[in-house]
Design a protein that fits this description.
Layout (H helix, E strand, L loop, with lengths): L7 E9 L2 E8 L4 E9 L8 H9 L14 E7 L2 E7 L7 H7 L5 H4 L1 H7 L2
Antiparallel strand pairs: 1-2, 2-3, 3-5, 4-5
Length: about 120
């Protein structure tokens, strides 16, 4: 069996009710990535998360060129979907960004910064 996550050095950064998130480095070219393991109970041909990311990002060839984080790859393994995305540097999750800038009119005052800083 091909295990795609062996292409990456990973460190767990979070876990929730639907999966776990890892920060990592792609071994082949040292690209910083986020790898999301989603536990799925019902999978369609293309999971919704993957479908939406394909629509908003420019794909693997648009790394660093799109406001949306680029989807690099995805895998379906039995009851799990693995999503690999670029990890811009610097970055922080959206909740931390909201907490940091509480009280500001976030989407009006800092839209460009938000696009560049969240992952």
């Amino acid at each position: 069996m091909h295990l795609p996550f062996l292409k990456f050095q990973l460190k767990k950064i979070g876990e929730g009710g639907f999966g776990a998130v890892y920060a990592g480095i792609r071994i082949t070219d040292s690209l910083p990535v986020i790898v999301v393991f989603l536990w799925v109970f019902q999978v369609f041909k293309i999971p919704l998360e993957v479908n939406l990311m394909q629509k908003v990002s420019g794909g693997p060839d648009s790394i660093g060129q799109s406001a949306a984080v680029s989807l690099l790859d995805w895998y379906y393994l039995d009851k799990e979907v693995i999503i690999v995305m670029e990890r811009p540097d610097p970055c922080m999750d959206l909740l931390k960004y909201f907490v940091l800038f509480a009280g500001e009119r976030l989407f009006l005052a800092r839209p460009r910064k938000l696009q560049q800083s969240t992952c």
